Amino acid sequence: MSGATPPPVMRGWPHAVGPLLNPLRLRVRRALAKLPAPLAEFIMFGLKQAWACLFAGLMLGLLIVTHLVWRPDWPIYRYDAIFLGALLIQAIFLALKLESFDEAKVILIYHVVGTAMELFKTAVGSWTYPEPAIVRIAGVPLFSGFMYAAIGSYLARVIRIFDMRFSNYPRFMWTVLLCVAIYVNFFSHHFIPDMRWLLFGWTILLFGRVRIYFTVDHVQRWMPLIVAGLLTAFFVWVAENVGTATGTWLYPGTGHWRMVSLQKLGSWYLLLTISFVLVSIVNRPRAPDFAPSRGTNAAFADAVAENRDA
Fold first, then answer.
1. Which residue, 309, 250, 295, 302, is CA-closest to 67?
2. What is the pLDDT of residue 75?
3. Which of 29, 101, 195, 291 ranks highest by number of CB atoms within 10 Å?
């Protein structure tokens, strides 16, 4: 019926993909309905998180696969192949409506912002890209911008998939000023004292009272925004270790692979703050409605019942 609320199996899924994957999702829900409620919800949370970071996962897959199979005598450089693969992924995402064009515009802005920082950081020797490429600017192969875009894609998709709401969210202009200060510090700390500790304090001042309310399936949960940012920064740090392990980029003084310093978590936390504010241009933070929710397993059972006869 036109205008009707979509059944639970369809909720949060783009129209172009949802009907194709619904049979699989229905089987998953039937299996989860037999599990204890906390475990069922935890598994569903993990599955939805994996779906939200699909772009990032595919990009990491490109880094790993090309590292394992690529040969120097092949007619296309590895970095250029990664770039073409990233373009193809982005085109597929738009074609299947896994991202909206408005979200893609913001992700493109973050792509440009990230590439500009890459140009500066490689110029001052913070890290290098050791392999040749045709599609590059100075010492930066252009696939690197897609690594930043993958973060923007994850944030845009996870907000939509989990129907995220935010309480005590600060005024947009204050968040923009914070992001400008963070971005400037990424450049200026090479010449003047690093201000990141002040910036950490600023993020706590602005976002310390903000809660994210999210819905895994039917039950609304919450988490402090600061905690969510730190957890996301940790997983980005893990992805960065994949990048260095595959030799895609290298830090100075590393003749062989070693774990990226945990100090990088702070840098990623600040960079994720920029990402989140950029995404908020399209997905403006909405306040929670605090509607009462039924138990998790009852929700799974309802989902199965509603879609069995669909």
1. 250
2. 93
3. 29
Confidence at residue 290, expressed as pLDDT on a 0 to 100 scale = 63
> Which three-class secondary structure string do you get for the chain?
CCCCCCCCCCCCCCCCCHHHHHHHHHHHHHHHCCCCHHHHHHHHHHHHHHHHCHHHHHHHHHHHHHHHHCCCCCCCCHHHHHHHHHHHHHHHHHHCCCCCHHHHHHHHHHHHHHHHHHHHHHHCCCCECCCCCCCEECCEECCHHHHHHHHHHHHHHHHHHCCCEEECCCCHHHHHHHHHHHHHHHHHCCCCCCCHHHHHHHHHHHHCCCEEEEECCCCEEEEEHHHHHHHHHHHHHHHHHHHHHCCCCECCCCCCCCCCCCCHHHHHHHHHHHHHHHHCCCCCCCCCCCCCCCCHHHHHHHHHHHHHCC
The predicted structure's pLDDT at residue 254: 53
What phi and psi, each to the nearest 5 degrees, are found at residue 131?
-100, 155
List the chain domain ranges: 53-293
- Distant-in-sequence, close-in-space partners of 295: CB < 8 Å, separation ≥ 6: 37, 219
Residue 250: the pLDDT is 86
Contacts of residue 210, defined as CB under 8 A and 6 or more positions apart, other chains included, come to 166, 167, 168, 169, 170, 224, 225, 226
Q: Show Cβ contacts of residue 269 under 8 Å, excluding neighbours closer than 6 positions.
A: 200, 203, 229, 230, 233
pLDDT of residue 249: 87
pLDDT in tens, 106-138: 888 888 888 999 999 988 888 889 999 999 998
pLDDT value of position 11: 45
Residues of the chain with pLDDT under 70: 1-22, 253-257, 290-310
Residue with tokens 């990226």: 260
Give the model's pLDDT for residue 19.
Answer: 62
The C-alpha atoms of residue 28 and residue 47 are separated, in whole angstroms, by: 10
